[in-house]
Amino acid sequence: MTTVGKILVLFIMAFSLILSAISSVAFTTSKNWKVATEAEKKKVGELTTKLKDAEAKTAAAQKDMDTQKANFDAQAKQLNDKITAIENQNQLAQQQITTAGGQVATAQQNAKTALEEAEANRKETLQLRELKSAVEQQANEFKLHVAELNDKIREMERALETATKNNGDLKERVAKYSTLLRSQGLSDDIAQIKGIESPPPVVGEVTRVDATNRKLEASIGSNDGLVPGHELNLMRMSPTPEYLGKAKVLTVDPNQSVLQVIGNTYQGKKLKEGDIVSSTIKPRL
Question: In this predicted model, what pLDDT tens digit does every residue of 101-150 receive, in sequence order?
């Protein structure tokens, strides 16, 4: 039971006693009122004392209640202050969460951009690697081509050296022949030498044909009696013998010559290695 409840019970008991005393006084008035009055006074004194005690207790209870109320108000104020501080902290935390959320969103966007850039860099790296591989392959092919060209250059240099030597030999021989012809009272003009239009009986093979199908190399030369200006027949013997056309000797070496096709080949046929070069239509093979 609370303090206020206790006080109310005491008040009720006091008033009950007072009423009881008054009733007793009224009931015993017809008796010895003096004795009764004294007795009732005594009872009233006792009740008054009890009432004062009750009032004192009530005052003490009121004071205690005021103290408790003050303590409650102080605690309530502390709690309200704590609640306000917590609300402020929550508000600050919410602001920080909002700020952090924005920072997270920005960080995610930056991460996404960084990933996209990384992917683009990866693709570019792959393309550069492929390009590097292609360039290296081209460089290797170029090196091989350069090596082949160097081999051809060396072959051509050897051929040039041989041709230069042969040319010197030919010039020396021509000079000797010219001297011999003039000593015999003959002209050394090749165009006037008897028999230039009639090449000696020769038979050779086509060893090379250029891409235009207009020039060819043959396996016969000056050692076989050929000189520039001779005209020879072109034939193919397989699968069946057939006439292909005519060619004119342009240059000669001891064992080979270069010829120019005269006009067009028969039915426009392409010459090839192994075809026959002959001074007669039907050579003896």
Answer: 888 888 888 988 888 988 998 998 888 888 888 888 888 887 887 888 88
Provide the total of helices (H) and of strands (E) in the chain, helices listed first. 2, 6
If you average pLDDT over every residue of the chain, what do you get? Answer: 82
| Intra-chain end-to-end CA distance of the chain, in Å | 150
Assign 234 to helix, strand or coil.
strand
Instruction: Evaluate the CA torsion angle 216, 218, 222, 224 in order and state its sign.
Output: negative
**Best-predicted range by mean pLDDT (8-17, 122-131, 177-186, 250-259):** 250-259
Among 54, 70, 86, the domain boundary falls at 86
- 3-class DSSP state for residue 246? strand
Q: Which residues contact 57 (CB under 8 A, 6 or more apart)?
A: 6, 7, 10
Helix axes 3-27, 33-183, angle to 10 degrees: 170
Domain presence at residue 44? yes
- Looking at the DSSP bridge assignments, the partners of residue 215 are 260
Question: Please, which pLDDT band fits residue 282 given cuts at 50, 70 and 90?
Answer: low
Percent of residues in the chain assigned helix, strand, coil, to nearest 5 = 65, 15, 20
Domain that holds residue 16: 3-86
CA–CA dist 277, 41 (Å, integer) = 178
Is 247 part of any domain?
yes
Alpha-carbon span 212 to 52, nearest angstrom: 149
Domain boundary among 53, 86, 119: 86
Q: Contact at 8 Å (CB) between 213 and 265? A: yes
Counted domains in the chain: 2
